[in-house]
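Annotated sample (chain length 330).
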Amino acid sequence: MKRKSWKRTAVKVMRAAPVLILLTAAALSGCREQPPSRASAPSVSEAKAAPARTFGIIYPMADAYYEAVTESAARAAEAAGVRLIIKAPDEANLEQQIRMMETMIKQGVDGIAISPIHSDMLAPVIDKAVDAGIPVICFESDAPDSRRLSYIGTDNIRAGERMGEAIDGLLKGRGMILVSTGFSDSLHLRERLEGFLGYIHRETDIDVLEVRYNEGIPGQALTELEGMIDDHPHFDAFVALDFVSGATSVLVWKAMGLNRYALTFGLMPDITEALRNGQITMAISLNEHRWGTLIVEQLLKACNGEEIPGFVDTGITLVDAGTAGRKTGG
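Output written by the structure step:
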């Protein structure tokens, strides 16, 4: 196959995901009592303009997938007079996430929301923030052994089972599939894979030919998918358990002109277009567009001393070519 030229183009396109905007904080106040300032008192206009609180949001990587989260968080923050600091490693990197948490703790932000790359490794720094009086919530992926206050997302084992049900319906319980996922250490992806494989092995005669990990790196996802297709050219369907694998499959299907089922998690504009164009058969949305609003709302409640639920379920929505682009509920 002549893939070298389109492969280079694909990697460049996938690395061109918009860089998340950093909204720096000039004045911090909120959940903790602040020491009196020796500076002169601000004017009335300055007092009105100053944000009441500053919240930090840390993604596992910079990707267009999180744009909807940022947009909804920004709207909710503006309405509440909250300043946001948005951070993400260029590519998935645990050490960078830890440093970003440490920096926000030093800055004295009033609340932090994080999608942890590695739940166990992030737990100590999450607890450090809580010890400093900063409420922390997780979204997308949980850190249940930390002292985080809440998790915003979905039951990922059930989400994996729903993907199994979807491919079962398409293949009528038989066939050969390829599976790709992201971070091998990420709790939500481990649970998603567990739910998916559990359903397939329990309820169907579908043969899972291979499962590969891309570790959240677009170029690696491209290489892994290309390798699986070379090794198993007669596969019936491809299942992406993370958004990086899903975006990669769109590029490969376009370049190779494949006519096989392709299913993915995550609904962003490129996936919606791919659904309409036939490169993606079905997508499972976790209603990501709600995460940003919920992050701001839950952190505000925590700062006000209100109790917040330990789990905020944003549900699951299946989207196909017939429903792509419509407004869907949870």
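Annotation: DSSP finds eleven helices and twelve strands in the chain.
Annotation: The domain at 156-287 is CATH 3.40.50.2300 (Rossmann fold).
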